[in-house]
Amino acid sequence: MPEYEVKVKFFIFPYRKFKINASTEEEARKVVNDQAQHIIDTLDFEISSIKAKKYLMDEFL
């Protein structure tokens, strides 16, 4: 199976500060975790190149 070299450019937003209101530390951790997952899921990116790595035939023998 060939391996691929992929160049990806992420469009990361500027630094943000979030204020969260929660009654317990556990609830605060859950809210923060959910917010972080949402940011990761919606992160914008662009694939600039995909190419298969080249192998010498000797490596397979």
Number of distinct helices: 1
Task: Give the overall silhouette.
Answer: elongated
Order of helices and strands: EHE
Helical fraction equals 25-40%
Average of per-residue pLDDT values: 85
Q: Report, as a whole number of angstroms, the end-to-end distance.
A: 15 Å
Runs in which pLDDT lies below 50 for 5 or more consecutive residues are none
As a percent range, the share of strand residues is 25-35%
Counting DSSP E segments of at least 2 residues, the number of strands comes to 2
Structural class by secondary-structure content: alpha+beta
* Spatial extent as radius of gyration: 20 Å
- Neighbour order of strands in the largest sheet: 1-2
The main sheet comes to:
2 strands, antiparallel
